[in-house]
Amino acid sequence: MAALVLLRSGLARPCGARMALLGRTLGRRPAVLAAVADRSFPARQSHSSPQQGHGSSRAASLHWTGERAVSVLLLGLLPAAYLYPGPAMDYSLAAALTLHGHWGLGQVITDYVHGDTPIKLANTGLYVLSAITFAGLCYFNYHDVGICKAVAMLWSL
What we know:
Elements: H1 2-9, H2 16-25, H3 31-39, H4 57-83, H5 87-112, H6 116-143, H7 147-155
């Protein structure tokens, strides 16, 4: 495989007749693989396909960037919640954790649920679960001790 990459990029050049032979054949897909690839198709499109509400690859790229941003945000929020507990941190954690979990479970649905009706049911269930999770965390933050203090209380046991 590395030799193929080197040959295609022009870093290693075979001499003479071998160059003519390799230059023509390495650039083509074998007929068997081309026929198999034409007949096979993914069981379900990625969550970034136009059928799932994303109109372009730019939208999918922005969605991917948003997922990474929330993940990095959580890396900073967790130590900040320990150092500076309070209501603002509790609600920030509730939103970020719910969004992170929603996107993660959405990927599980994308990878493992197949067929139009099961996908619609799974996505509906995911939205309901995410809404209940966020509402429950907000309720816990408002009517009880909050996420930061609850975790501190668990650690003190």
